[in-house]
């Protein structure tokens, strides 16, 4: 395995000292090291991958230096427009090094590594996407001993060709490194709920004729396990296993066309990723619940920008009928009662501040995405 500190040191030797991106599970050790040892002004955790490309372009224009953008391959879609319409050498020619975690990777013998459903297609087409965009790339893994030479070569290529280049990172490439965490809200004396407990309370307060759209990551896994434990079935939950940041738009349009009461279980990172959707969500009639633990929980615990913004104020400014923040069990239950008539009045938002973390033995959905979709649509009466 490659030690994050060694890889970081080689990047610095090549003049790569600015980092931005969206954390990824395969890169979490490296991202954690960057968070701990990079001057704050030279490390920005972006709201989405396209925004990271924008930040990288701004850095290069202001300094003349070459930035690093890290992301999961599932985020390539968000980068395509700024990469091709701005950074490409046929437009402005912006050098940068993309560090891409390869979920659903294709092994050396041509087989696909087993991964979650949302990574299957993305893993298959990642190399083809980079090739189609004219982005030169190299693959590294735990056995890549000559990574210093590869990194130097790719950095030179980015600068000489005025073009983005990429390093595609296989699973298990980086040795473990754990982020140095400050005090959690619980350690600071605030008695916040766990996300799992909050979801259980929320589900208990939902009427029978309800439907839940749950966001990417731990929240959907916790919801699925909760339903299994209660023997409730899974027809009432659409698990947004990919497409981070789009759960609220799915819920919004469903609420305009279904007689069910629609709830969206969102996360702070997902809310930030496509926050512009908030301006359109007011046209719906759903309850938008943002479970805010202020970190990217499923990919290493790196902080989001959600600790410094007023999410309910944003919702109200965008036209939501009601919005508030809760931190305790009693306040959550009270708020759900107060917001119960959203189907008549219009979209509302409830920010639930929770502590980071999840159970180590948390399971994954046992039904396939196609099976879940079929159950969802039968419950909704659309098939």
UniProtKB/TrEMBL annotation:
Q: Which SUPFAM superfamilies match?
A: Thiamin diphosphate-binding fold (THDP-binding)
Q: Where is the Thiamine pyrophosphate enzyme N-terminal TPP-binding domain?
A: 10-117
Q: Which Gene3D superfamilies match?
A: 3.40.50.970
Q: Which domain of life is it from?
A: Bacteria
Single GO biological process annotation from the record: organic phosphonate biosynthetic process
- Domain Thiamine pyrophosphate enzyme TPP-binding stretches: 228-352
Q: Which UniProt keywords apply?
A: Decarboxylase, Lyase, Pyruvate, Thiamine pyrophosphate
Asked if ATP-binding is a keyword of the record, the answer is: no
Question: Could you tell me which Pfam families the record lists for this protein?
Answer: TPP_enzyme_C (PF02775), TPP_enzyme_N (PF02776)
Molecular functions (GO terms): phosphonopyruvate decarboxylase activity; thiamine pyrophosphate binding
Q: What is this protein called?
A: Phosphonopyruvate decarboxylase
Q: Which organism is it from?
A: Paremcibacter congregatus
């Amino acid at each position: 395995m490659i030690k994050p500190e060694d890889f970081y040191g080689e990047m610095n030797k090549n003049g790569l000292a600015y980092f931005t991106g969206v954390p990824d599970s395969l890169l979490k050790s490296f991202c954690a090291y960057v968070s701990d040892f990079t001057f704050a002004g030279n490390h920005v955790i972006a709201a989405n991958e396209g925004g990271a490309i924008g930040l990288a372009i701004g850095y290069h224009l202001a300094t003349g230096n070459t930035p690093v953008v890290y992301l999961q391959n599932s985020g390539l879609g968000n980068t395509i427009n700024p990469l091709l319409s701005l950074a490409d050498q046929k437009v402005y020619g912006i050098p940068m090094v993309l560090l891409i975690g390869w979920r659903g990777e294709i092994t050396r013998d041509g087989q696909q590594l087993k991964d979650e459903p949302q990574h299957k297609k993305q893993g298959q087409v990642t190399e083809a996407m980079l090739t189609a965009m004219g982005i030169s790339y190299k693959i590294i893994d735990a056995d890549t001993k000559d990574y210093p030479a590869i990194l130097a070569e790719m950095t030179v290529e980015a600068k000489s060709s005025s073009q983005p280049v990429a390093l595609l990172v296989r699973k298990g490439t980086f040795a473990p490194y754990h982020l140095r965490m400050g005090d959690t809200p619980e350690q600071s004396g605030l008695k916040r709920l766990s996300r799992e407990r909050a979801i259980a309370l929320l589900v208990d307060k939902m009427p029978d004729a309800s439907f839940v759209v749950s966001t990417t990551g731990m929240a959907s896994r916790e919801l699925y396990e909760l339903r299994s434990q209660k023997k409730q079935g899974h027809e009432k939950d659409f698990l947004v296993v990919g497409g981070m940041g789009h759960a609220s738009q799915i819920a919004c349009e469903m609420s305009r066309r279904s007689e069910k009461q629609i709830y969206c279980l969102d996360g702070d990172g997902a809310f930030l990723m496509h926050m512009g959707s908030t301006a359109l969500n007011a046209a719906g009639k759903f309850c938008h619940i943002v479970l805010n633990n202020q970190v990217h929980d499923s990919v290493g615990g790196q902080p989001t920008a959600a600790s410094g913004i007023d999410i309910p104020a944003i919702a109200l400014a965008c036209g939501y009928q009601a919005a508030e923040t809760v931190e305790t069990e009693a306040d959550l239950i009270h708020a759900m009662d107060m917001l119960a008539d959203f189907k008549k009045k219009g979209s509302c938002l409830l920010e639930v501040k929770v502590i980071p973390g999840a159970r180590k033995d948390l399971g994954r959905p046992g039904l396939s995405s196609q099976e879940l979709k079929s159950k969802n649509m039968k419950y909704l009466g659309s098939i």
